[in-house]
Every structure is written in C-alpha cells, then in structure tokens.
Amino acid sequence: MKSLYKITGAIIMLMIISTAFLFAQKPFTVVIDAGHGGHDSGAVGKYSKEKNINLSVALRLGSMIKENYPEIKIVYTRTTDVFLTLQERADIVNDNKADIFFCIHTNATGGSSAHGTETYVLGLHKTKSNLEVAMSENSVMMLEDDYETRYQGFDPNSVDSYIIFEFMQDKYLDQSLRIASLIENQFRHANRYSRGVRQAGFWVLHKSAAPSVLVELGFISNADEEKFLNTDEGKHQLTKAIYNAFEAYKRDFDKKTGISVTPKEMTVYKADLKKDSVDENQVIYKIQLFALENKINPNGREFKKLNDVNYYREGKFYKYTYGEETTFEKIEALRKSIADKFPYAYVIAFRGNQKITVEEALRRK
Length: 365
Ligand SMILES: [Zn+2]
Prior knowledge:
By secondary structure, the chain is an alpha/beta fold. It has eleven helices and eleven strands.
C-alpha cells in the first residue's frame, strides 16, 4: 500500500511539474484580425475597399511586432482575401488563448466630412453614432447562411438586441481600455485626428476571451482619408502608432508578471551616449532600427551603410539604434530620411539612462 501512495504521489508531482512547464512555455500571443474579406468588402470608398486596407495594416502590425519581439506568437485570422464569420474570428482568439486581440477596421458614414480614428472596447454604446458603427460592423453576420441560429437570435440591426451589452461583465475591460487609450494617444502623436476611445457592442469582441480592441483607422468615405489610407506612408504611420501602443502595454504587462523584459534589466552603454548628454533629466530621442538576440558588427550590411549605429540591451535583446537628438521634430525628420531603407524603424526615448515612452518624453518638453 505504501509504495502505491508513493507512486501516486510521484505521478501527481509529475503532473504538477509538467502543467507548470506548459504554462511557462506558452508564448505571449497576439491575434490580429483584418476585418471583412472575400465577398464581404466592408466599407467601400471611391476607389478602394475596407477589406484590403485592413489586411495590409494587420500584416504590417504583425511583422512589426515579430521583428521586435521574436519570441511573441503572432496569429492572423486571415492573411489573404478570404471570408470568415465573426464567430470563426473569435474562435481563433479563444483557441490560441490570446493575450491581446486587435481587430482592424476602416470606418464610413453617409456624409463625406467625418474623419479621424476611433478605438472601441466592448460595452454599451453611449451615443447613437457608436451604436451605428457597431451595427454596421455586426451586420456582416447577415452574409452568413443560418446566422439567426449561430448568433442566438441576435439581430445586428435591431437596437433592442444591444441591451445585452448593458449588464455584461467584461473581466478584460480595464486592460482593453488601457490598450485603446494608448492607441488613440499614439494616433494623436502621429498627427491623426483622434475621435477617442469608445464603447459599443461588437459581436467579435463579445465572443473573444482576451483584452480586445477594435480600431477604426479612418473614414474611407472621406476623400483625404481614403487617399491617406491607401498610401504606404499612411499605412505605415497608422501601423506604427498601434505598434507603439502595443509596446507600452507589453512593457507594463512584463512588469506585472515579472517575466521577460523589464526596464530594470535594461543597460544603456554609457559609452554609446554622447558624454555631454548623460544628464539625468535630459530627454534623448533615438531611432530604433531592429532588435536581435545577438551582437552584430556596427559596420555590418544589416545597417545598410548607416554611420553611427548604436545599441542598448533590453532583456536578452540587443536593440540597434540610429541617431540621437534632443527634440522629437529632429529625430522624426531623421527617421523619415531613412524610412525607405528602414520602413519599420521608429522613435524611442531615454531620460538619463532610463528608457521612457515617447509619450512621456513629449510631456516633459
Ligand atoms: Zn469594418
């Protein structure tokens, strides 16, 4: 009998250890959903379709995250022009136990003057216009056969259906709000007109068990924005804004969970900073080119003939930077000048030898 207890004990221990191991092994997972696709074009502008803009920004966002965080798992709901139901999109989030869920959409209204970005989290709409955005995005479920049974009688076009969002408990709301406000702040810094963080009953967010946001990149029904949304520069700016928000959120997340990168682990090599600039309160902007786990030669061809390349360490990564300026305007001009060689490079900021967010650096000006 005694040995049986021992064996059972050992088996239980093994199960505990392997479960702990599995949990430790699950990579931080980001699900990126390009709204619409296939026979569902989404909103349509004068010459372009929402589904294509969404897909392009979604793919850019995924590769930007992957480039800087190779250890993160990126899952796309679609990488090509195909139709997916809202439920299939939510299933992907849940099956992958996503740590964060980005839905990328483009807005439209009947008029042509509305413009700007909006980021939604799940909840009961406070204004009619928020409700209208959710209705329009949810109405794609009517393109599915049998949608009444699949969506449990939810009628995307009936105001009454949305009452379910009034009493709903969303345990991810705080985190979703945090990401949403970081995104809208970053849009503002990228000189987009931000219409702010909003709430409404989006089915895809409702069915996804993860901190989730639905980003409306701009209005395809507005001539200037349609043009902007169809340029490389426009897509890049919007993607980078969402990426910057993600980076800030991830930094907080790591601080809380105590794993992977924390600012404390970060070492800035003082020799890399100009001597006169090592001042505790001086804000210094740099351009981050990319991050790697290994140290490479500053004259290597990866740097495409840039001079004065530096690096700092964050966790296990060597983060390679270019340029050093004390104003955001100057560093942004420098970033633009190398954007053809390094389209995913972005501005970072330090105070003394502490890395801070660009947002924080700008506030200190
Ligand atoms: Zn949409």
